[in-house]
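I'm stuck. Protein, please.
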Amino acid sequence: MSETQFLHRVDQTLVRIEAALEEADIDADCSRSGHVLTIELENGAQIVVNAQAPTRQIWLASRSSGAMHFDADGDRWIDRRSGAELFESLSRVVTALRGAETHLLG
């Protein structure tokens, strides 16, 4: 995958994340700067999702969960360590930070 294709795919994924948060009625402020999406939850907790072009990965990080690195696998992004899918992992992080069960559909 070329860098241009990768960044286009990342952009699509970041848009899907924002839409999933809205559809799940999560009270969160999302802000984007380039290929970095910062999600601030109602309690002030932050989650950062960003592109790592040199490795062709998406990284997901929060203070409580640490960092996870996702590789493209077909239409999905898969965590190289756990085998978990990006939206599954993001749902777990949001659940932990909010203290309320959250299911984000990507």
